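agent> Task received from the user: take the single chain below, predict its 3D structure, and emit structure tokens. No templates, no multimer pairing.
agent> Plan: (1) validate residues, (2) run structure prediction, (3) serialize to tokens, (4) report one or two observations.
agent> Step 1 OK, no nonstandard residues flagged.
tool_call: predict_structure(input=
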Amino acid sequence: MNAEAANPATPGSVTSGHVTPAVTRRKARPRLDLRRLGRAALLGPATRDRLPDAIGHVVDAHRAHHPDADLETLRRAYVLAESSHRGQMRKSGEPYITHPLAVTLILAELGAETTTLTASLLHDTVEDTDVTLDQVGEQFGEEVRYLVDGVTKLEKVDYGAAAEPETFRKMLVATGNDVRVMSIKLADRLHNMRTLGVMRPEKQERIAKVTRDVLIPLAERLGVQALKTELEDLVFAILHPEEYEHTRELIVRNAARADDPLADVADDVRKVLRESDIAAEVLIRPRHFVSVHRVSRKRGRLRGADFGRLLVLVNEDADCYAVLGELHTCMTPVVSEFKDFIAVPKFNLYQSLHTAVAREDGQVVEVLIRTHQMHKVAEAGVVALGNPYAAPPEEQSAGDGERVDPTRPGWLSRLLDWQRGAPDPDTFWSTLREDLAQDREITVFRPDGGTLGLPEGATCVDAAYAQYGEDAHACIGARVNGRLATLSTVLKDGDTIQLLMGQDPASEPSREWLEHAHTPAARIAIQRWLTAHPAQDDVPGPEAVAVSRPLRDDPAVPQAPEAAPGRPVAAQVLVDRAGATVRLAGCCTPVPPDEVTGFAVRGGAVTVHRVGCAAVARMKSAGRAEVGVRWGEGSECRVTLVAESFVRPHLLADLTEAMATEGAEIVSATVEPPERQQVRHTYTVQLPDAAHLPALMRAMRNVAGVYDVSRAQPQTPGA
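)
tool_result: status=success, residues=719
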């Protein structure tokens, strides 16, 4: 995938599943020598009886995680990759085969299984050589074929400027079926970022920004911290070179210090655990460049303990809590720093206990406590889960139909859902970046025991579309933690939400919902509906075509199309203008016996307003001519009612039941936040006949707790 020459300023590297910063007290394992790989590649493949020298490093790393792996498959994959890429060179002057080899080594060190490594060796063959997907499938099976296809770019000659966003859309869809696709892509991008040095600065910057906006968030969500942290450092060096250099100097100066508070506390922790007979490994885990930079901005002047954290590895989950107990008993804990990600794992599979202890000199040392298996997953994320086909986890339900399967996390399912509705590549690309920029996820609970995973900052509108999809257009309100709430209410982690749904299948979302929609799924669904149903009340001109039901009485008019879903109809209004169709204005919802007037809108239709409506004054002042209209005999109508009541349990359910009993169909509803134990409800309802209105209002007033029901008053000009 067009990797470039090696960059000597690379700040870190993946070794044995974790990132080693360039400047640490421990000697880092040397990075793969591309020149040595180049020489091995030029010698060509080995005989069938032995493995090629060029993949020896991959085999060693693979055997460390999978001692019984089938190495013959890797040998055959390398032979095909080497022969198909033979003669192709990178800008560094190295044989191109060094790139797939380096990508495969990254994955092997993270513990990827054989199928992933096989596809990694072949990941550029279909894109850059004459090898076809069918050939890959015939020689290595359908799984490898699928993975190679998933990471193969779409051609610019076919897609033009849309090639990059559509390639990512294709990869994400493929990842929805097999997360190993994105594992290969992340390793591919890491090696390309490591070897970006000979490219033009503007191209380096463009690639770094895409890496920052898309690849790094995906690595975070898939839990592949080892790749994520190095990608962050590489992007940091390209996009913020001055701050990167300053951070590097801070790390160098700290490494030269004679005293090391982290080493001192590590010795104390080892002693405490040894005396408590707890088997544990205590390591110093240096912060990577971006982490040091963040801490520096947060705390100002850095002290020795700020440059790393302690990592305590144990064998069993119970040992984690035993370690925590000993540390909090024998040392001075900083209680505010304690977090339990074992009992409540992060959405990206991460599990650890986080705590901190204070030294006598005031320095605070952060401590991470986890099992060896937790550490493997913390570093490698979904890569550590192996082959999702080999032993598929039981598909349990979280109560809302969302899979618990860690190879198909909830955030990915939601991303795949909304991307289907993205109308064009630009919308998909910008929305994807915005979606991935949301760092934290919250969980809200439903009364039936189910849960919804939402990004931080999500509102009741977002919850409605997350649960019901486009059926959320019919949402009329919500209860949050048992209390009525507006749909704009921002939800917090742990909230319980009950969504209140209307019964009208042609319900319409409010344009205001866009202001409160935080998730792509909600915004795209609302925008799609609004685009398909443009408002026409106050748009002058004859160009557009208005739709309505035909008038039932004279003047007779030709049959017109059915009204758009959810829009007011005006079958009970007569107009003094032959051939016109009419519709009731949504701003004032006139009903008999309201005094009404009309205005011509696009397509020759007439919109009917209450005479006192603010829109009437605006249109008259703009010189719009009025059209005479009058009510016909008994016919359906739409009206907006305001109910004022005291707060009590089940009030909204009782009120909507009373309205349904009177034959009213709720079109939309809003419930304002309670104030001094009082609450105001606004309902727009459809009635089979205006004569039903007094009975409906009486029924609503008879609901316990309701002390007034009135027609919504039209706004006056200037109000």
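agent> Step 4: summary for the user.
The domain at 254-382 is CATH 3.30.460.10 (Beta Polymerase; domain 2).
agent> Done.
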